[in-house]
Structures are given as structure tokens and as C-alpha cells.
From TrEMBL:
Coiled coil: none annotated. Residues 2-87 form the Dienelactone hydrolase domain. PANTHER family: DIENELACTONE HYDROLASE, PROTEIN AIM2. This is Dienelactone hydrolase domain-containing protein. It comes from Fomitopsis schrenkii (Brown rot fungus). InterPro entries: AB_hydrolase_fold (IPR029058), Dienelactn_hydro (IPR002925).
């Protein structure tokens, strides 16, 4: 569905059918991914970079270190690394 927009952002892309749906990406895209996420973590993030990079696609993949699935709504605000990850995720993509 990426082709229906000028650009897209996939925050917490747990519903992405990996790697099949990457084939449909034709426009700029940004992924925001928790380092630890059993749906779409750092390993799939690295594969996403490899697949989209090989196609010359305009993209960014940001892996937020030290955070896990749900980090933007359930962050431990007393943990400076988790709070920083949550705050950074609110910034707009740089693609």
C-alpha cells in the first residue's frame, strides 16, 4: 500500500508480512523498530535494510536500542535509555 502515498512511516511494524510486503514498497519509507520485539526486531530490521538497499529504495530503518515491543506507550520513564528511546521516536523521520 506504500504506493498510495508520497511517503510512509511504519512505527512498530508488527503486522508487516515480512519479507513479502517489502516487495510492494515503491515510495520512501521509514521504519521505527524496537531492538527487542518478537514480531519485528533488530534482525528483521537488518534484513529490511539489506532488501531495500539492494533495490536502491529511499528508506530509513531506525532501531531503538534498549527498548522492547510497546516502548512508546509503555516506557519506563525512570529508565533514561527507555525514556530517550520513547522521546526520539516522536521525532519526524529523516528520509
Amino acid at each position: 500500500m506504500n504506493d498510495q502515498f508520497d511517503a510512509t512511516v511504519a512505527c512498530h511494524p508488527f503486522l508487516v508480512d515480512f519479507p513479502n510486503e517489502l516487495d510492494g514498497i515503491t515510495k520512501p519509507i521509514s521504519f521505527a523498530i524496537a531492538e527487542t520485539d518478537h514480531h519485528y526486531g533488530s534482525e528483521k530490521a537488518a534484513e529490511t535494510e539489506k532488501i531495500l538497499g539492494a533495490r536502491g529504495q529511499t528508506f530509513e530503518v531506525v532501531v531503538y536500542k534498549g527498548v522492547q515491543h510497546g516502548w512508546t506507550i509503555r516506557a519506563n520513564m525512570a529508565d533514561t535509555e527507555k525514556k530517550a528511546g520513547r522521546d526520539k521516536a516522536k521525532e519526524p523521520g529523516q528520509i
